Amino acid sequence: MDKNVILAKKYGRAIYEIAAEQHCLEQTEEDLRLIADTIGKSKELGEILNHPLLAKDVKKDTINKLFADKVQPIVLQFCYIVIDKGRIADFAAMADVYANLAHHGMGMEEAVVTSAFPLTKSQVDALKAKLAEITGSKIIMKQKVDASLIGGFTVRMGDRLIDGSVARQLAPYRIPIMGVHLGHLGFLTCGGPDDLFEIVQAALVGQMHASHRATLDIEVCFSKPDGSELVERRFALNDLALTRGVKGDMIAFDVAVSGHHIDRLRGDGFVVSTATGSTGYALAAGGPIVTPEFDGMICVPVAPHSIRARAFLTSPTDVVEITMSHERRSERLFFSDGQPMGVGLVGERARIRRGPGDIILLDRSVKSFYRSVSRVFYGDSRT
Predict the structure, then answer these.
(1) Which amino acids are annotated catalytic?
(2) Which domains are delineated in the chain?
């Protein structure tokens, strides 16, 4: 396991044990989060606290002036120890470790809910009540919005994932989905709110074009602190992304396709995308825009440390394998359709293949995709 992760766990547990002994778990979590968020949001403060030549007393005085009247003395003392040990860069990770321990100690569990649209208060209350019933714990809920889910939601609690997204549920049944354009790009939609009655009527009488969109079947293997492994499997409509960690260190990994070794890459990461995802992260990383009917995968290195590394396409039957190199034990993160995988664990390898079922999206005609490409990427107002 990465040395920084081990130390973050050690420090997080240490402050947890002190807070538990003094019966101030909840307040300590708020204090640690306040300091971590403040450091994370202030570039100037981060530079001061992480400057290698600045005296530790100056850093402590800075923390004291900012937080002495806002946090408990035990949290201030903890900050001073972290500064003395030169570990302030890992403070946010320590706060996360503490939060997990404190939630468990207070019979609480954090649930990160990602939905296609913001949930109403009544929906949030109902979901919290159901999760509390399932887990037997008080639920702390955090909300995120991801339009690619199309509808429904996903819930992550630790290393558990409950996938209730519309895209995930409908894929095996080949039920068509009709998207309504409420955002900026509109690649998955066939009209806006003003056109809703017209496009629903057209769909009911069979006048819409059915676009079959390939999906991804993703398996990522993570190593756990006890040395065992956890394999997390996901369904994705857009992409699997491997990225460098929050410290920004370059990562090294091997890429193979159906048993054929492609290269050992060094850089910021790697994206394996469907045709649908080709207009997202893959495009931003330098990949091609691909017609929705393409049913292979698009593989795109992200900021590779080589002028030879290029994006490439696979066949529908290929399997893409990514194996992290022990050459560099840098922090790395895996995401499926923008959702984190293996939170708090260390990703070791991934296998990506075409999913067993396609998503069927309805649009006005086969030309809809190219109209969107022309409008968004080439600025043709005539479309």
Answers:
(1) 163
(2) 3-105 (1.10.520.20), 108-175 (3.40.30), 176-208+365-383 (no CATH), 216-357 (2.60.200.30)
